[in-house]
């Protein structure tokens, strides 16, 4: 990693809070699966979004070629990431910006907090950013006496509701209109302009209440914090896709702009954006074109007093486990992700469990492969995430950059089950297999012994067929967990071997 740029001294902050003691995914999901309101909210929202996306994608005859092109661009960039990051830093610096390098969340939070304090202001407005959620920036700013205001509508709902995001594109997907109205009525007045008297749950009323609440913050703020969907190495250009216009307000009105961006978001050339300008909107919001696409390149060559845009721009390039992920030839494809959330909307597990069960700002299938690599698999939740999937492959089919999520899931399952060495924050550590993996390995060994002996297998199949009427309703021991939520399948009247012998007249 290149040397870090100079930055203002930051106060000593408490370390980024460790991951809460989330239970393993099955335990975390159990409450969500039993909540009919939550399941109805998730089912309605995910089905609506994915149906619209399917229609939008079907309009393009060359969608498969665009998908392959996006994959190729991302793979090429990741193979040469060191070179493109240096090129990006040079281009941003030449355009008047300042680049900072952050190895982990703590360093990124110190950099951003120091930059904000150096301005003399104690408020920031924020563009929706997964990277700042990943590092816990809002909490770090609050610890330093700085108020951070989310301006994306869904993020605003989550923040006012003292909640956590549960979806990449629609962080408040688990909330319905009635719940949002209650949150606005109870919480808006505590952080600024209160909600109008008699606020209803009509979407237009809710949107207007949010607009009025945020307007005063946009006009008052002197410092903004953003992420970026893409960074162009050859020009130093930052690119933000959004649908509401709040990003445009944050990126143009404040005097100081600080962007925290993962190092994997770089693309080599401006021309490469042409692919993603087509695939990202259709895969995320099912739109042909993104409503607001904001691009900026440093401060520009000749900034005057009356020019739009910030007078100071800082880019914080975030690693936080990405370099370790890059070293895994199978797992690195997760870094191709462009955060469209299409995989969440087709996933049967996410639809029933919701985003909170994943214990990460990256929920759903992509979170199941990205979070354990960025954070390591030393916790119960991270060790269980690779198993939070049916391996149905729907996520791979809709991914606009062709991430083979099932392949990575199986790869990570092997790593967890073996209890072997894994990389976490640059340190080689040894993990303990999650509960049940010891029994699983024993069962696999027993199956191997049986499958290696065709005669014993044949005898066992015949015995089970004759005893099928004695089929229990529940399995004993560890198998009880399976039959607690599923019916034990009926045993067939005959084995496949017997059927084959009858149909073909020979032995299998």
Q: Specify the CATH homologous superfamily of the largest domain.
A: NagB/RpiA/CoA transferase-like
- The total strand number stands at 12
Instruction: Please write the CATH class name of the largest domain.
Output: Alpha Beta
Biggest sheet character: 6 strands, parallel
Helix content: 40-55%
CATH architecture of the largest domain: 3-Layer(aba) Sandwich
Per the CATH scheme, the topology name of the largest domain is Rossmann fold
- Beta-strand fraction estimate: 5-15%
Can you list the strand order of the major beta sheet? 1-10-7-4-2-3
Count of spatially separate domains: 2
Distance from first to last alpha carbon: 58 Å
Topology readout:
Blueprint: H1 25-33, H2 36-58, H3 63-79, H4 81-94, E1 98-102, H5 105-119, E2 123-126, H6 130-135, H7 137-143, E3 147-150, H8 153-160, H9 177-187, H10 203-220, E4 223-226, E5 230-232, E6 237-242, H11 246-252, E7 256-262, E8 266-267, H12 273-284, E9 292-297, E10 312-318, H13 322-326, H14 342-346, H15 348-353, H16 364-375, H17 380-384, H18 394-398, H19 405-418, E11 421-424, E12 427-430, H20 437-451, H21 454-466, H22 480-483, H23 496-504
Parallel strand pairs: 1-10, 2-3, 2-4, 4-7, 5-8, 7-10
Antiparallel strand pairs: 5-6, 6-9, 11-12
Helix pairs in contact: 2-12, 3-12, 9-10, 16-19
Features:
alpha/beta; 4-stranded mixed sheet; 23 helices; 6-stranded parallel sheet; 2 domains
Give a concise summary.
This protein has 508 residues and is an alpha/beta fold.
Describe this structure in words.
The chain has 508 residues and is α/β, with parallel strands linked by helices. It has 2 domains: 25-322, Rossmann fold (3-Layer(aba) Sandwich), CATH 3.40.50.10420; 437-504, no CATH class. The protein is built from 23 helices and 12 strands. It has helices spanning 25-33, 36-58, 63-79, 81-94, 105-119, 130-135, 137-143, 153-160, 177-187, 203-220, 246-252, 273-284, 322-326, 342-346, 348-353, 364-375, 380-384, 394-398, 405-418, 437-451, 454-466, 480-483, 496-504, and strands at residues 98-102, 123-126, 147-150, 223-226, 230-232, 237-242, 256-262, 266-267, 292-297, 312-318, 421-424, 427-430. It has a 6-stranded parallel β-sheet, sandwiched between helices. A 4-stranded mixed β-sheet has the order 8-5-6-9. It has a two-stranded antiparallel sheet with strand order 11-12. It is globular and about 90 Å long. The N and C termini lie far apart (58 Å). The relative contact order is 0.12. Mean pLDDT is 88; it is low at 1-7 and 421-434.
């Amino acid at each position: 990693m290149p040397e870090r740029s100079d930055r203002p001294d930051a106060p000593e902050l408490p370390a980024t809070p460790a991951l809460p003691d989330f239970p393993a995914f099955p335990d975390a999901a159990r409450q969500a699966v039993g909540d009919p309101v939550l399941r109805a909210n998730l089912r309605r929202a995910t089905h609506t979004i994915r149906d619209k996306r399917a229609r939008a994608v079907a309009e393009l005859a060359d969608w498969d070629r665009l998908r392959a092109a996006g994959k190729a661009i991302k793979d090429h960039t990741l193979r040469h990431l060191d070179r493109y990051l240096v090129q990006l830093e040079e281009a941003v610096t030449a355009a008047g910006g300042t680049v900072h390098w952050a190895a982990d969340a703590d360093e990124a939070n110190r950099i951003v907090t120091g930059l904000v304090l150096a301005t003399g202001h104690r408020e920031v407005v924020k563009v929706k950013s997964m990277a700042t959620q990943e590092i816990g920036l809002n909490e770090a700013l609050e610890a330093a006496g700085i108020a951070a205001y989310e301006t994306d509508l869904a993020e605003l709902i989550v923040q006012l509701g003292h909640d956590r995001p549960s979806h990449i594109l629609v962080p408040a997907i688990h909330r319905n209109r009635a719940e949002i109205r209650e949150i606005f009525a109870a919480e808006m007045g505590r952080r600024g302009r209160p909600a109008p008297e008699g606020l209803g749950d009509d979407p237009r009323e809710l949107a207007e209440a949010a607009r009025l609440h945020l307007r005063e913050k946009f006009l008052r703020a002197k410092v903004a914090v953003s992420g970026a969907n893409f960074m162009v190495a050859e020009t130093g250009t930052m690119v933000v896709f959004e649908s509401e216009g709040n990003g445009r307000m944050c990126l143009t009105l404040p005097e100081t702009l600080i962007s925290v961006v993962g190092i994997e978001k770089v693309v080599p050339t401006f021309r490469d954006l042409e692919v993603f300008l087509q695939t990202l909107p259709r895969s995320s919001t099912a739109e042909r074109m993104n409503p607001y696409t904001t691009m900026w390149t440093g401060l520009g060559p000749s900034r005057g007093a009356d020019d739009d845009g910030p007078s100071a721009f800082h880019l914080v390039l975030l690693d936080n486990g990405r370099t370790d992920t890059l070293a895994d030839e199978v797992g690195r494809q997760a870094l191709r992700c462009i955060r469209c959330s299409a995989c969440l909307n087709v996933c049967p597990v996410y639809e029933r469990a919701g985003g909170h069960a994943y214990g990460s700002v990256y929920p759903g299938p992509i979170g199941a492969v990205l979070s354990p690599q960025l954070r390591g698999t030393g916790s119960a939740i991270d060790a269980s995430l690779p198993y939070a999937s049916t391996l149905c492959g729907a996520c791979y089919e809709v991914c606009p950059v062709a991430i083979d999520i099932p392949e990575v899931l199986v790869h990570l399952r092997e790593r967890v089950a073996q209890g072997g060495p894994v990389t976490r924050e640059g340190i080689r550590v040894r993990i303990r297999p999650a509960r049940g993996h010891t029994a699983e390995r024993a069962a696999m060994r027993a199956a191997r012994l049986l499958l290696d002996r065709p005669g014993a297998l044949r005898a066992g199949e015949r015995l089970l067929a004759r005893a099928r009427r004695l089929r229990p309703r529940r399995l004993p021991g560890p198998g009880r967990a399976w039959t607690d939520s599923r019916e034990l399948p009926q045993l067939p009247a005959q084995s496949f071997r017997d059927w084959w012998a009858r149909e073909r007249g020979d032995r299998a």
